[in-house]
Design a protein that fits this description.
By secondary structure, the chain is mainly α. It is built from 10 helices and no strands. Pfam families: Sigma70_r4 (PF04545).
């Protein structure tokens, strides 16, 4: 579906642009909150991104990974605009258990009637570097594959695999083995 929408958008179909914007808005907005706390700035940046894409649509490359393409473009736009406006801030925590991206996780936690594991996982994730938090967010909350993550973060595919492996290893070292299995269960439930 995304590929056909992208092709129609590139061909000048404004309805396809609207469908792309509507389909990806929530994911783009939630991802943007990691870079800025200003909702107006975020909304403006997303809108400007779509306007810029519309103006340059004839020159855009074909992609089978529309979501990661949009996330990468928005990430660069947010950082560039934030620096230009002198309002750049380090990305916030990428792993927020209260975020709207995670309805399955919220349901699992409610079903298990255990806030301990989720708060423990959240506290451990906050100990990770911002880059590690971002890769966990992209992999398990946005359900992106390694290639998409590499594209968004500007890393090689092998670097993504290595970073994800080191991140999960670090979580495992902090948690007791039984608790680590619970953390993996929570993370895998997101994908």
């Amino acid at each position: 579906m995304n590929v056909q929408l992208w092709q129609r958008f590139k061909a000048g179909d404004s309805a396809a642009l609207g469908q792309l914007a509507q389909f990806h808005y929530r994911a783009l907005y939630n991802y943007s909150t990691k870079f800025s706390a200003d909702p107006d700035f975020i909304r403006d940046s997303i809108q400007e991104l779509y306007l810029e894409l519309w103006e340059r649509r004839e020159h855009l490359s074909e992609t089978a990974f529309v979501k990661s393409y949009l996330m990468k473009a928005l990430r660069h736009k947010l950082i560039k605009e934030s620096i230009r406006l002198k309002r750049f801030q380090e990305p916030k925590e990428f792993f927020d258990l209260d975020q709207e991206d995670a309805p399955i996780e919220t349901q699992i936690i409610a079903d298990e009637k255990s806030n301990f594991q989720s708060s423990h996982l959240k506290s451990i994730i906050t100990l990770l570097s911002k880059r590690q938090q971002e890769i966990i967010y992209l992999r398990f909350y946005q359900n992106l594959d390694h290639e998409d993550i590499a594209n968004i973060m500007g890393l090689g595919r092998q670097s993504v695999s290595n970073l994800l492996h080191r991140t999960l290893k670090e979580i495992r070292q902090i948690w007791a083995p039984a608790e680590f299995m619970w953390a993996l269960f929570l993370l895998s439930a997101l994908s």
